[in-house]
Amino acid sequence: xxxxxxxxxxxxxxxxxxxxxxxxxxxxxxxxxxxxxxxxxxxxxxxxxxxxxxxxxxxxxxxxxxxxxxxxxxxxxxxxxxxxxxxxxxxxxxxxxxxxxxxxxxxxxxxxxxxxxxxxxxxxxxxxxxxxxxxxxxxxxxxxxxxxxxxxxxxxxxxxxxxxxxxxxxxxxxxxxxxxxxxxxxxxxxxxxxxxxxxxxxxxxxxxxxxxxxxxxxxxxxxxxxxxxxxxxxxxxxxxxxxxxxxxxxxxxxxxxxxxxxxxxxxxxxxxxxxxxxxxxxxxxxxxxxxxxxxxxxxxxxxxxxxxxxxxxxxxxxxxxxxxxxxxxxxxxxxxxxxxxxxxxxxxxxxxxxxxxxxxxxxxxxxxxxxxxxxxxxxxxxxxxxxxxxxxxxxxxxxxxxxxxxxxxxxxxxxxxxxxxxxxxxxxxxxxxxxxxxxxxxxxxxxxxxxxxxxxxxxxxxxxxxxxxxxxxxxxxxxxxxxxxxxxxxxxxxxxxxxxxxxxxxxxxxxxxxxxxxxxxxxxxxxxxxxxxxxxxxxxxxxxxxxxxxxxxxxxxxxxxxxxxxxxxxxxxxxxxxxxxxxxxxxxxxxxxxxxxxxxxxxxxxxxxxxxxxxxxxxxxxxxxxxxxxxxxxxxxxxxxxxxxxxxxxxxxxxxxxxxxxxxxxxxxxxxxxxxxxxxxxxxxxxxxxxxxxxxxxxxxxxxxxxxxxxxxxxxxxxxxxxxxxxxxxxxxxxxxxxxxxxxxxxxxxxxxxxxxxxxxxxxxx
Amino acid sequence: xxxxxxxxxxxxxxxxxxxxxxxxxxxxxxxxxxxxxxxxxxxxxxxxxxxxxxx
Lengths: 766, 55
What we know:
A: mainly alpha; Helix Hairpins; 72% helix
């Protein structure tokens, strides 16, 4: 029997009322959590709540698709959960640095975090947010398809599927928009949302475990054809490598799931942004894998029983509903239905909130601010609501175009490959200093294009939107351009091939463009701060982590009031009060001490604001409030160059000073030589009146000559001063070098003879 | 380092040994869930030790 032929075991109105009531209950849970947070008793400040909130990873794909895949391909539903388990087991190496740097830089999204590595480069953040919106759309389509399928099956639906899907989309969009942006204080943490998501994870798990227990009880209680059929199906579960795809694909799928787990927007939201304490990660490192283990424990038993009781007549994706319905367990079917609704709604809410934050922070807020407009929090909230509705609408469009005829898992994996495009730039951000913003952007764009061609185009072909010839003969008959066997590569599943080509080309383009356009000084400085932040635990007032530290903004003449007013507008009075108390405590300030707009305070404000509106917009707002534009990096570098120039001039002056000292020493020495000669000869003449006339005459001549030499020296010094001032003129004329030497020798000879060394000069002819 | 070692061994265990030892898909499933449970238990133990260190 197909799902369209099922009797209306649960009336449609009951199913709709149950779903609606459940959604209202989620509002109540969120409201309760928010109230407790206001009262200072946070619900989400518990490791197990954190671990449960990570369960948002398990969507309708898990709830319906895993059983469907297990029925068809055995264990191939598992890599999707082994990957996240791997990440959580290796959390200290993989997740902790990511969380530390995100917390230190107050990044509220993946785009914010990656752009912070490049000095809050707007192009990088925009590219990342655009990529994530595009690759998430098939995932949203998956949820729409799953909810529609669940409604159809639970209510024994016949016909009207299109209208049902439309109303599912309308309710989902409105619920996500209202639930995800309930509060006006747009802060980075959503207590109510996380509490509701954790509650939904519990519902999912409870529904699946109940189903599994009932299935096992039926199998153990029934000794007839049901058990025999199940045991026969168990014996025929295909081995992992039995369906063409080998262990290489198994490993590739595991790693793909690990990467997607890290870079899915909703995972980043609950893992990093909503994390209250880093220490919760340690507990979640085993609690979340345990959650996945429990959730998957009964997948294979349910799938095998579905093959026995439903057979090939119903879609395997609906076995979780058709099995309890076939067993007559209507209440259980309704519980499972609510579990499926939980899985889909939690994914859509958190994913769309994360995407809306990125789009509003990276695209709309900076654009709005650059136009000179005032950014009001209420405007920002409406923008986010609009983005949420647009994302769900785009998912609906994708569902209409390509999603109708595919299994849930096939659609989800396409999104996973798209999300994996973030792996190269993030890996490079942590490990390679040479990566540049241009390289990261080019790599992401290339990866996105290859993903679209190798992963999305085959989906569109198989759904009939594009002609079959794209896959059979290649576009325009070019076989090596076939999207599922690009460049003739075969031997792996089309999805693994898509992962391989898209990530490879992404990484290659990133490297080549980064080498061609290397990072500038500003990017290198941001990279240094980024890596340093990854190595140590964050604190609220780490001024050096903020680019505000490099600004002159802290020199603003404005007091703290305009800044505080702006902060209050964006983060709310309560959050600001709490943050200021923390700030004062960290800086050792009294609680009533006046706030000084100094460098640490601006850094604090920038991070607090970035938590609400993103790094790029936060800086634009701060520059406006502080009344002076922070210097751009080229200006900073110009200042550095000027400082270098002053230093060089200073060194030149010091060298001149040393030359002047040497010159004075040399001149003094030169003056002393003739003076010594004159004085010595005078003393000889005075001391020995009997000296013969000839020698006396020679002494007098020497004294006259030395006097003339002294005069010449003084004149030469004066000439040098005039030349130095540019007033003198050089006059070139021949010099009798032998005569000069002779003069010198005659000058020193008497002294030498007196000291007994007069034979040293032999009158070289020169 | 303990966590990283567990993660590497887990990755290895859920790939090749699971492929080599069991004869059928059903026994592969049991082996996989067994390996998975052991990895979770070891991770829980390591987390406990880490808590003690912090304390």
